[in-house]
Amino acid sequence: MQRIVVLISGRGSNLEAIVRQCQAEDWPARVVAVISHKADAAGLSWAQGQGIGTAVVDHRAQTSREAFDEALAAAIDAHQPDWVVLAGFMRILGDAFVHRYAGRLLNIHPSLLPSFPGLHTHRRALEAGCAVAGATVHFVTPTLDHGPVIAQAVVPVRTSDTPESLADRVLVAEHQLYPLALRWAVQGRLRVDGQRVTQLDGAPQHLFCEEP
Ligand code: NHR
Ligand code: GAR
Asked: Is 125 close to ligand 1, i.e. is its CB under 6 Å away?
């Protein structure tokens, strides 16, 4: 059984989607712990309700970003994970942290990377006049939101969209995309060649999320 640790900063809806799919599809894996830098992250209480272990590593109690990364790594390593999954995790991680979990550290970013790395992605996509938006699951590398892409979901932009309405629809797509990509990872279906990630049998790595 592979062990997954999920890092969150808030609501934890992607965490919920992952835990539900992991159970429903009987993956050879389980979420063994949820860790946050925020004690009030709603996803922590949800995880506790599911009987999943939780921990808080408060960044404000640390003297530097490196010290935070080390404390976070210690909390993670206590659970001996095979995979470390960022799900709405809002702290930039340093090189040493990223190298420690190289090849087993995943993130979901709410844009079609390499467009719009960083924050405020939905506002920036609307300002740029994009006809489509979406989400990307990628391996985490030291350069923010630039790691090898595992899977992407495409969501049409509506003329009436606000950053909030677009975020809501992209989030629905995220809940499909992240469990899918993580299942491929735990099933050993992913091959990484530089920036390119492929599935074993060449199966598609995208979702088109059409409106109802
Ligand atoms: N760390 C590395 N090294 N590489 C990545 O690709 C990372 C990462 C840490 C987090 C998630 C990411 C996203 O999906 C992620 C990817 C936080 C910020 C940010 O600016 C940017 C991108 C992401 C997460 N954080 C501010 C900071 O100073 C704090 C912002 C806040 O608290 O609201 O850490 O978009
Ligand atoms: C998601 O939309 C995720 O893609 C995004 O935050 C939301 C978290 O929601 N992540 C980032 O913006 C990372 N910088 P959730 O807590 O309900 O999963």
From this structure: no
